[in-house]
Amino acid sequence: MMTLFLISCVLLILVLLSSLFINLPEKVFSALIWTFGTLTTLLLAALIIQRLLGTKAAFANPWALVLLILPAGVLAAKSIWKKSFTPHVLYSRTQQTIQQASLRALLTQWLPVTLYTGALVLFVLALARPVLLRHTTIPPTQGVDIMLVMDVSASMQRQDFYPNRFAAAQRTADSFIQKRVNDRLGLVVFSRYAMLQAPLTLDHDAVRELLNALYLGIIDPTYTAIGDAVGVAISHLKDSQAKSKIIILLTDGDSNAGTIDPRLAAQAAASYGIKLYTIATASPPGSGVYSSQEEEINEGLLMEMAKTANGQFYRAKNEMELANIYDKINELEKTTFTYNIRTNQSDFYLPFVLAGLILLAAGLVLEKLFLIRVP
Length: 375
Description:
By secondary structure, the protein is α/β, with parallel strands linked by helices. The chain is about 50% helix and about 15% strand. It contains twelve helices and nine strands.
């Protein structure tokens, strides 16, 4: 489209420059100016419309727009050689003729040919085959699969985080999910038992909804089964074809329930190529009014699990540190890939054809029935 417009501009400039060196007949020069000027204007209008529509529409056959020179030539001929378009009778006594410039006379002279020219423009646009474009972004087939494993035991209601550890964990996990736009995420919750809350999915809104719907007591909150929770997460990651598989375990206690030893669970994760990040969420003993008077977390166990499964251990003493930990994990496990955008197009030429036929019919009706010219 832009190429055609530039060619039309160059031709118009060449015609103007040629008048300085070549002595063309006045009517021929006027016809060329009219033709290329009108063509340039029509192409500029089409270009502006396409730019306004952006990536929503395009012309499949843009070179057909060269035919816009036909309606441009019609307007030029109508303006310059009026007598060829106007039937007339020779009078022997011209002083008896009356020149009329009424509105009806102007409509009779210009309206039909304008409608015909408009119809021709629309037919050319239809021939250029306008299409509507629909772009679909296809997610990557292999990204990062992440299982969030969250402790919902009774100790998560302690208020050394505001308003408590559990609410702070929900907020920071929700923020993390929003940053992993192109990865599959799942959610496992645990206390005495482990339960799959959300399978691996690209529907992050569903995962966030399930995360924010959690509450303390959804499972028997009296114990903490860390090994079982990691085992459930492994069972949903082990067959994944993703280039990277991750478990993020968040807890504020020690493993004191379940049938799977946490160390064996970490070894199983490593054998399946799954990284394990462990996060201990509790302030140091006696550091505040709401903190515990003794250490609740088995840091040694969580460190050993993370090292076994090629991950890292983190200790969050407040919500800000917890948010920073999620940011660090987000940076460590960055997903890089190229977007795959599929474009579907549907033809949109029929409205132009119908509009052109309507203008053509309107011109014929007006010329033959209402704007009848009498020589």
